[in-house]
Each structure stands twice: as C-alpha cells, then as structure tokens.
Amino acid sequence: MTLTRSRLAALIAPFALLACTSSAAASVINVAKTPWCGCCAVWVERMKAAGFTTEVRNVEDLNPVADAAGVPRNLRGCHTAMIEGYVIEGHVPAEDIKRLLAERPDAVGLSVPGMPVGSPGMEQGGRVDRYQVVLIMRDGRHRVWSTHGPSA
After folding, report:
1. DSSP letter assigned to residue 63
2. In 82-115, which positions are buried (b, 16+ CB within 10 angstroms) versus exposed (e)?
3. Contacts for 138 with CB less than 8 Å, ≥ 6 apart
4. What are the percentages of helix, strand and coil residues in the chain, rounded to 5?
5. How would you write 95-131 as a 3-class SS string?
6. β-sheet bridge partners, residue 134
7. What is the DSSP letter of 81?
8. pLDDT-based confidence at 140, cuts 50/70/90?
9. Neighbouring C-beta atoms of residue 116, cutoff 10 Å
10. 43: three-class secondary structure by DSSP
11. Which of 82, 79, 75 is nearest to 39 (CA)?
12. Could you read off the pLDDT of 66-122 as tens digits, one per residue?
C-alpha cells in the first residue's frame, strides 16, 4: 500500500501535536503561595497576561518550598515558583523571567526580596518604588539582574 501525502500528513499530525504539547508544558510556571495572599494571586494574573501558563498550589508554610528550591532566606518573597528548572521568588516581572529563559544562565533563578511597591502584583496607584531583581547563583551568591522603578 502506498501512502499519499494527505494520508502521511494525517498519520504524522498527532505526533506533531504531542511535540507541541510537551514543549508548552515545559513553560508552565508552578506557583506555591499561601491561600490568604492577595498580592500573589495578582502576580499570577500578571504572568498569565504576559503569556505564561500558570499552575497554583496553596501551602500553609512557604519555607520548606523555598528551602527545597535553594532560595537563601535573605532573598525570599511572598511566593515561590518554578519554571523550566529555575526558581522565581517573589514579585519578579515577566520580562525578567523571559530574559532568564532566553539567556539560560547557570543559576538557581531570580528573586525580588520582600514586596516592593510597584512590582507586579504590588501596584498601588501610580507609586513605584525602586527595586532590584537578583540572580541567585548556585554557590549561594547573588548579583543584580535588573533594576526597576524611578532613577535614584
């Protein structure tokens, strides 16, 4: 039996869909947050608006999650997320996550320590505080990845 192009395409199409599905699944942001934190829910919405797919799980205590992800205590925010093997701690802007995924540094991930006003999910009118996103290195050190907000 010979296969026509249309029959061959029909046979191959499901495999192409599987390849696309597994590729998209790798870009899901898995977020661990406390159930009572509204700003974390807003950050998740900001990530969805930026084109990311999100999966959220509520936990009572984020410390074990951040510990397992390798986030130093002084760099913790109010939620911990994972995407493509990187940790995203706190209110990290979507453009920084996209840059991380494009550049792929040998690092643990990114953090916005604390809850700076004006960061994604922490908007309060027009007020934006200056804050930094830090890259967490595998040896525990960190360095500035980007700076947001008004000039100092």
Report:
1. H
2. bbeebbbbbbbbbebbeebeeeeeebbbbbbbeb
3. 70, 106, 107, 108
4. 35, 30, 35
5. HHHHHHHHHCCCEEEEEECCCCCCCCCCCECCECCCE
6. 111, 144
7. E
8. confident
9. 18
10. helix
11. 79
12. 999 999 999 999 999 999 999 999 999 999 999 999 999 999 999 999 999 999 999
The token pair at 145 is: 């990845």
- Would you call 150 exposed, middle or buried from its count of C-beta atoms within 10 A (0-12, 13-18, 19+)? exposed
For tokens 């701690």, name the residue.
89
Tokens of 95: 């453009």
Contact 79, 58 (CB under 8 A): no
Report residue 64 as tokens. Answer: 């074990």
Amino acid at 5: R
**Residue whose structure tokens are 């939620």:** 79
